[in-house]
Each structure stands twice: as structure tokens, then as C-alpha cells.
């Protein structure tokens, strides 16, 4: 089975062959070891690697894991290639779209408040402008990160539905 592990800001490619008893053949970034692995308890394993013994404690058992080895704690995230791709797609979706965004009036409205200025940095979900339509105030938000390039309206101005209000790049 193939995995990708991330720890301390570094990525490792790991391949684990089917075990023969307690012996695992493990390759990390192309270097292969035979590891004798014995489970001591639910969260503790004894490993023998090239004649050196390690006791490994799984302190937090859902990826990312927190692993204790020789009194040092390491956060380790272990994913399959498929899980890594899904995580990257999900992260990108959470960050919002890249490139130019144009915040538009959803319907005929009056601009109540501008919450940003030209040159301001904004993130996904940040409030940009407040408009009033049908006696209700609506906060319009950025879909993704960027810099406010243009403000095409003034406070108090009436605008038609679909009118561009703010441009973010």
C-alpha cells in the first residue's frame, strides 16, 4: 500500500508491503527497511529497525496523528494519494475562487455602507458592502481572497439588479 506522510513541514512517500508475521518491508522516499513491529497496547508499538529499538506511542489516533518517539512529539498526517487529491480540492474550494471577482447587486438596491476601500486585502467570506433591498439590509461577501481594485458605487446610490459594485482581484 502507498501513502503520503506529512510531518514537520516535510512530505514523505511511503510504501508498505504485505507483512510476513511481524516483519514489514517499508520504503520511505525510495529507501527500504525491514521493520519488526509488535503491538504492545492499543496505542503503543515496539519497532525494531536495523537493530535499533523504538517505542512508538500514538497519542492522538486520527490523522493527523500525534506520535511520541523517545520523548519527542510529532504531528503526522498520513494519506493515500486519492485522499491527498481530495484534500487539495477541498482546501481550494474553501479558499474560494482565484482571479477576478465582481460583487454585483443581487436585485434593485440602495448602497447603505461600503466596508472596504480600494487597495484593501480581503479573504473568502469577508464582508464587502451592505445594500438595502425591500427594506432589508444584505451584507455581500467576497467569494475568495484578493485585493479591492475598484469601487463602482457610492454610499446612498440606488443601483439596478446585476449592477457591478466592487471589483476584487
Any overview of this molecule?
- The protein has two domains: 92 residues, Glycoprotein, Type 4 Pilin (2-Layer Sandwich), CATH 3.30.700; 68 residues, RNA polymerase II/Efflux pump adaptor protein, barrel-sandwich hybrid domain (OB fold (Dihydrolipoamide Acetyltransferase, E2P), Beta Barrel), CATH 2.40.50.100.
- The chain has an eight-stranded antiparallel beta barrel with strand order 1-2-3-4-5-6-7-8.
- The mean pLDDT is 90.
- It has 169 residues and is mainly beta.
- It has one helix and 16 strands.
- The chain starts with a strand and ends with a strand.
List keywords for this structure.
Glycoprotein, Type 4 Pilin; single chain; about 55% strand; mainly beta; OB fold (Dihydrolipoamide Acetyltransferase, E2P); 16 strands; 4-stranded antiparallel sheet; 2 domains; 8-stranded antiparallel β-barrel; about 170 residues
Describe how the helices and strands are arranged.
Blueprint: E1 2-7, E2 10-16, E3 23-28, E4 31-41, E5 44-49, E6 52-60, E7 65-69, E8 72-79, H1 81-95, E9 101-104, E10 109-114, E11 121-122, E12 127-133, E13 136-141, E14 146-151, E15 158-159, E16 164-168
Antiparallel strand pairs: 1-2, 1-8, 2-3, 3-4, 4-5, 5-6, 6-7, 7-8, 9-16, 10-12, 10-15, 11-14, 12-13, 14-16
Strand order of the largest sheet: 1-2-3-4-5-6-7-8
Distance between the termini: 42 Å
The CATH class of the largest domain is Alpha Beta
Order of helices and strands: EEEEEEEEHEEEEEEEE
Helix content: under 10%
| CATH fold node name of the largest domain | Glycoprotein, Type 4 Pilin
Amino acid at each position: 500500500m502507498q501513502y503520503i506522510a506529512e510531518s514537520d513541514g516535510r512530505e514523505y512517500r511511503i510504501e508498505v508491503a504485505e507483512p510476513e508475521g511481524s516483519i514489514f518491508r517499508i520504503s520511505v522516499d525510495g529507501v527500504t527497511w525491514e521493520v519488526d513491529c509488535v503491538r504492545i497496547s492499543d496505542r503503543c508499538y515496539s519497532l525494531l529497525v536495523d537493530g535499533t529499538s523504538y517505542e512508538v506511542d500514538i497519542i492522538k489516533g486520527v490523522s493527523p496523528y500525534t506520535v511520541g518517539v523517545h520523548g519527542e512529539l510529532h504531528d503526522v498526517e498520513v494519506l493515500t494519494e486519492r485522499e491527498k487529491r481530495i484534500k487539495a480540492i477541498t482546501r481550494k474550494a474553501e479558499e474560494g475562487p482565484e482571479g477576478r471577482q465582481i460583487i454585483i447587486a443581487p436585485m434593485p438596491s440602495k448602497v447603505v455602507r461600503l466596508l472596504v476601500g480600494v487597495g484593501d486585502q480581503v479573504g473568502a467570506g469577508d464582508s464587502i458592502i451592505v445594500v438595502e433591498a425591500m427594506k432589508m439590509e444584505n451584507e455581500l461577501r467576497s467569494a475568495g481572497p484578493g485585493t479591492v481594485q475598484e469601487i463602482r458605487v457610492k454610499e446612498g446610490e440606488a443601483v439596478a439588479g446585476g449592477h457591478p459594485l466592487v471589483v476584487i482581484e
